[in-house]
Inverse folding.
């Protein structure tokens, strides 16, 4: 059974930083791309960033590019999201997800490409 557990959320002032972690189990972590998504109150869930299974290819939404960095440590079965220069509009629940297919050549930004999700961690950015 695949489990994803996010941590690292919290309350931070605008301009501050947080690092989210997602610990995965139940699947050969190093064989799958991972993604981060977020859902703000009253809005649909949206793509934030992803990283390929080998860890050298990353992709970001335009709203976080240059401020967020996704990385992974396959030895620890963990994917990270370093969030810098946070803005109030970054306030949301953040979810990690694992690709449904191993060794995918190109990472995907659509939710349908991911088949297991964590429970989410809340990030609140105050102005």
């Amino acid at each position: 059974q695949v489990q994803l557990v996010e941590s690292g959320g919290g309350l931070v002032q605008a301009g501050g930083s947080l690092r989210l972690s997602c610990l995965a189990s139940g699947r050969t972590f190093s064989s799958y791309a991972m993604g981060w998504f977020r859902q703000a109150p009253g809005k649909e869930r949206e793509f934030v960033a992803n990283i390929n299974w080998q860890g050298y290819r990353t992709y970001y939404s335009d709203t976080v590019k240059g401020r967020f960095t996704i990385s992974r440590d396959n030895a620890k079965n963990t994917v990270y999201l370093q969030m810098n220069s946070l803005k109030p509009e970054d306030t949301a629940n953040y979810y990690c997800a694992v690709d449904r297919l191993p060794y995918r050549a190109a990472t995907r930004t659509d939710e349908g490409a991911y088949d297991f999700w964590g429970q989410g961690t809340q990030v609140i950015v105050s102005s």
About this structure: The chain has a mean pLDDT of 96. Residues 90 and 125 are 7 Å apart (CA to CA). The radius of gyration is 13 Å. The first strand starts at residue 3 and ends at 7.
